[in-house]
Fold this protein.
Amino acid sequence: MTNIQNSQSLYTTFLEQPPSCLEFCPSAPDYLIIGTYLLSESSTANSTGTQTKTGTIQLFRLDPESFQLTQIHKTLLPHAVFDVHFSPRDPSLFAIATSAASVSLYSLEYSSPQNPHIIIHLTTITVHENPSTPSLYLSWLPLSHLTAGNKGKENSHAHGYSPDQLSTDGFAVSFSDGRVSIFHTNSPSHDFSQDSMTEIVLPGEPVEVWFTAFHYGKSLSGKENLLLFSGDDFGVLRVHEFVADGEGDEKHRPLWAEGQFPAKTTDVSVGGKHHGAGITAILPLFTEGSDTVLLTGSYDEYLRVYKFSGQASVLAEERLGGGVWRLMVITEVENEPLAMEGSSDIRSHSYFVLASCMHAGVRIVRVTCSVGKDTSAAGVWEIETLAQFTEHESMNYASDVWRGGTKVGTQIGKESDSLLCVSSSFYDKRVCVWKVKV
């Protein structure tokens, strides 16, 4: 068993409001967006207390030499920010999910090719008819899956940007009342606006849906379609399968026709509940044959390798010490074949994952799949915690890895390689920069 490294902060700053989410900018890797969530209560002698939610989005620059974080720009908001993600199609565009049943889109304005200096508001889209129903999580439609035809093994966490892809764009958003909706653009303009976008409402239970994740792979019917996984507060993992209308050839048929395509919804947990509490993170790893393998995080503090197929099952699990709120693949490593006595060569594939674990802080884990002649198609899975950062004194809801300099993970596992991370905690309003060797 590997000794768990304990990392220490290189720089710490404190915000005026609690940080709820953060993400580095793909086109300017030294810059990151931090969203905040402030709940204020007021009361008078003649009335009961009222709650007001406000927030900010803040642009910071990380100096990778001094490790200092410098605030570049801040925008005050009349609502709180639950989630933030950059677009996979335009790396200067990002969206936030808000407490006011809306999604707002922003862009970064650059003073030079690598130096954004201001946040520009583009539009705000109302995504629920009840303004008091918060939008909890947002996931962009995946770039490589807007057209059917991507066959074989698929990685949903790979990054890539190309202006030559189909113009259809959009996002899924989940809510506290159990609804999940997809909003997508339409031809010919493909504008992100309230009037021009189409909404697809997906069924669910009347409980918080904490997470959604798109993936293109084999469905329970055995066909390759666009899938949307969602996890709710009851611990139910649900998959929404989007079926093309059959127009076009098999490899390049459009997923959208006349602005819509039908969705079929299945509760993956039917026949056996595999999560002991609400599902708070879903990370599709790949599809191989008829099996799609996911990583899931839960309030029950477990990270699980989860096989989505005809008989859904847990392939491995590890308790991380705190609710597993967010997961992110740092890099993948394809290991050399391992010669085993008395058996065929075994190949292994590892995922290095950053996990935000609420009251337990941050974990870096290695998730390894070994496949050989005598193993199942899904392989033998192991989860190992390599490092942790525990200086946060309240809920760690957001973490990310700096991806500047050389490609992150190219030397991972070697003595000289290290990761530079930024993580936050909510109630103590703390943002930390730290480094770890893995």
